[in-house]
């Protein structure tokens, strides 16, 4: 509109000059010369062009207005302004100050700032299996013979005297391989058009299987399709903690558990605890209001009595396990975590869907229950 206003002003000036020139020529010669005739035609063409432009604008701006609550674009606001109405009548320049509450942006007028990638959800650090033995199998069950009772009667013996007899009993343990799995469906279009999204889903599915296995290593009941976790059965998977005083600070109780493992002739390698119990240890104070564990301003790894702490939400609050995990319990893999894709599943073909499945097959062997002490804090 500013450009059109400028052109109109220039055209008005040209018309004035042309009228003065033609008046002088007609007065002197009685007729209009050829050059002025050509100039007249040029001015006539310009006037017609500007007239058509103005007519077109007036038709656009004369469209019915919506309700009072409609959102105005910049063009709507200008077309309905008093400044534009004055321009149409006078041909002078029009100016409109747009207020913040007059013009509102939208998805049509403003391109969104789309950030790449996918923001992931929370992922627990899966550390339980890291401190256990890792083994493999090609069968659907694992059997092993475990020492049950060892009675050591070895003693000094006099010459020509009967030697003492010791005793040892064994038990056969069967640990079936269990499957941990889950699945979800995505549209075939998503699989074709968004490989990044499918890759993220695959990773999330794989993590879900590992997350469940991490929990089963501690809490699995051993019934049905569950693995037999380390906290499942006292005497079979671990030894009940007894060497402590009810209500004593957790650091003192853990020290008692260390001794209990050592009395059984094993050397503990780690402690598995819930993060809230670890916090309780960190905040324990002496009678001088000093922290027992460490200066909170110091950056040190999670340790208690020199043993690394495996901090995990898989361990219930108020319970713990401490032991020689490098020889006590083994995680036996029949099949690592595998993510597969299936088109021929259920009604996938009819609905244009794809099924994504992640699964693994594991067994747990508890070789030396006496080397692991735990349960509830006293």
Strand content: 15-25%
Mean pLDDT: 83
Tell me the Rg in angstroms. Answer: 43 Å
CATH class of the largest domain: Alpha Beta
Shape type: elongated
Question: What gap, in angstroms, lies between the N and C termini?
Answer: 85 Å
- What is the CATH superfamily label of the largest domain? hypothetical protein PF0899 domain
Taken together, the total number of domains comes to 2
**Which stretches are poorly predicted, pLDDT < 50 over at least 5 residues?**
100-105
Strand order, sheet with most strands? 5-12-9-6-8-7
What is the CATH architecture descriptor of the largest domain? 2-Layer Sandwich
Q: Helical residue percent? A: 25-40%
Order of helices and strands: HHHHEEEEHHEHEHEEEHEHEE
**Main sheet attributes: strand count, strand direction, barrel closure:** 6 strands, mixed
Briefly note the structural class of the backbone.
alpha/beta
Total count of strands = 12
């Amino acid at each position: 509109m500013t450009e059109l206003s400028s052109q109109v002003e220039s055209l008005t000036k040209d018309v004035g000059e042309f009228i003065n020139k033609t008046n002088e020529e007609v007065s002197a010669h009685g007729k209009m010369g050829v050059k002025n005739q050509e100039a007249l035609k040029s001015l006539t063409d310009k006037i017609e062009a500007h007239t058509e432009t103005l007519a077109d604008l007036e038709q656009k701006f004369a469209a019915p207005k919506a309700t009072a609550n409609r959102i105005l674009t910049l063009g709507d606001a200008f077309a309905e302004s008093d400044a534009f109405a004055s321009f149409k009548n006078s041909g002078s320049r029009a100016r409109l100050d747009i207020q913040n509450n007059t013009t509102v942006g939208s998805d049509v007028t403003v391109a969104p700032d789309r950030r790449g990638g996918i923001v992931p959800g929370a992922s627990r650090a899966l550390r339980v299996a890291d401190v256990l033995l890792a083994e493999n199998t090609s069968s659907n069950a694992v059997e092993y013979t475990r020492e049950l009772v060892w009675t050591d009667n070895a003693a000094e013996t006099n010459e020509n005297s009967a030697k003492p007899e010791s005793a040892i009993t064994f038990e056969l343990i069967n640990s079936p391989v269990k499957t941990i799995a889950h699945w979800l469906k995505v549209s075939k279009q998503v699989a074709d058009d968004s490989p990044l999204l499918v890759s993220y889903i695959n990773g999330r599915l794989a993590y879900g299987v590992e997350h469940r296995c991490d929990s089963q290593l501690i809490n699995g009941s051993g019934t049905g399709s569950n693995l037999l976790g380390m906290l499942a059965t006292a005497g079979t998977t671990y030894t009940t903690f007894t060497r402590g005083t009810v209500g004593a600070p957790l650091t003192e109780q853990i020290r008692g558990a260390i001794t209990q493992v050592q009395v059984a002739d094993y050397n503990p390698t780690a402690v598995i605890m819930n993060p809230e119990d670890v916090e309780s240890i960190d905040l324990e104070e002496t009678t001088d209001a000093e922290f027992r564990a460490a200066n909170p301003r110091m950056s040190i790894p999670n340790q208690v009595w020199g043993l690394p702490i495996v901090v995990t939400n898989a361990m219930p609050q108020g319970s713990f396990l401490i032991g020689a995990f490098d020889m006590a319990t083994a995680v036996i893999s029949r099949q690592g975590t595998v993510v597969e894709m299936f088109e021929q599943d259920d009604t996938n073909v009819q609905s244009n869907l794809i099924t994504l499945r992640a699964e693994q097959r594991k067994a747990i062997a508890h070789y030396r229950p006496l080397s692991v002490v735990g349960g509830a804090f006293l």
